[in-house]
Amino acid sequence: MTRVIHTGDTHIGYSQYHSPVRRQDFLDAFEAVVDDAVDGGVDAVVHAGDLFHDRRPDLQDLMGTISVLRRLDDAGIPFLAVVGNHESTRGGQWLDLFERLGLATRLGDEPVVVGDTAFYGLDHVPVSRRDDLDYAFADHDADYAALVAHGLFEPFGYADWDTETVLTESDVAFDAMLLGDNHTPDTAEVADTWVTYPGSTERASASEREGRGYNLVVFDADTAGGDDRVEIRRRALDTRPFVFVSVELREGEGESRVRERVREFDLAEAVVHVEITGEGDPVTPAAVEEFATDEGALIARVVDRREVDADGEVDVSFADPEDAVRDRLDERALSTAARDVERAVREDTVSDANVRETVKRRVEERLDGDGDLDAFDAVEAGGDGAESDADGDEWDGGGAEPNGDASEPTEPNTEPEAAEPEDSDPASTDGQVSMEDYL
């Protein structure tokens, strides 16, 4: 029998809402996973990518992660991982550094056997390069086998990777695929193989309303009930509370009603999201946010989704600034590609943390192969240069995430990228450290 914790999308270093407290929350969540691993005496911790939020993590995030990994190492529990799209760099990976320090094992096409299970790895690979993959893995003589991979796999939401192709073309018969990138936890069976996401360990987006956690995966025919061979259990993490307040204002109701509704919730140290709908009076979001923080919230955000008539000749509804942005864009001679980029920046389905990688991917896909170079030509102002979102590009991965503020497909280890600055002094990058400083 082999018992492992399956986690991923920890996004250490993410300063959500530009908050240093939220930044610490992401490291704390990873530490909580390691605490459970040590307390539970599992055989390994398997991380399915996006350990860091950025490929150039700040020194404090790097040192904090090393400290947590050392605790795991002291307990004799191996840390097995793959590289996600957020952290991949042109050359060496942070995971390679941790491996040199004896704190991690980077999974690949050779088996890493823990207990009676062989683990393999598949780093994130962009869509444009997946046709070249041959899914060739070395043989093993263990009782079970698992593939750890980072990407958006079928049959889950926003998928762009054919899971059945991976399983049928692989040289190894896998009992499970332990995945990362989608921040929504889920499990399914594909081609007689269990395929599962643990979800992110912290809410990287306001759309991630369910509680956060990880998977406890057991490889054991008896424990799993005979022929199934694998048992997957969901374990919860105690993370920063998010409070979601919906207020529908009736005619004559305004800010006082919003405050009354907000008071109904326990806001202590919580991230609070207030959504206003209905037919009531105008509300100043900033005033409500200040009220919520005075009531104990760590962070407060207010969205007023109503259309409010404006006085005089002004035809912009400040309750919905998206309309104003669209109107101004229609006046400009933007290319189709530019509109595609603009849509990636503004659309709700792409998380804030994924915008950069989503934009890069969409541009690269237009340039790959024959390329859609006409998409970079300016169109007549006021024309319809935007393309349909029906091509499935609503989410960039990462994690997932399809979850609003954070997870997105980016370039893999082999993807060319702009050269990193050659300054070897970490202080010159405001604490951000490049691999060249260490490898």
UniProtKB/TrEMBL annotation:
First-tier enzyme category under EC: hydrolase
Lineage, highest ranks first: Archaea, Methanobacteriati, Methanobacteriota, Stenosarchaea group, Halobacteria
Protein's UniProt name: DNA double-strand break repair protein Mre11
Enzyme Commission number(s) from the entry: 3.1.-.-
A Pfam family assignment: Metallophos
Cofactor, how bound (note): Binds 2 manganese ions per subunit.
Listed cofactors: Mn(2+)
Described purpose of this protein according to its UniProt entry: Part of the Rad50/Mre11 complex, which is involved in the early steps of DNA double-strand break (DSB) repair. Mre11 binds to DSB ends and has both double-stranded 3'-5' exonuclease activity and single-stranded endonuclease activity.
Ligand binding (Mn(2+) 1): D9, H11, D50, H183
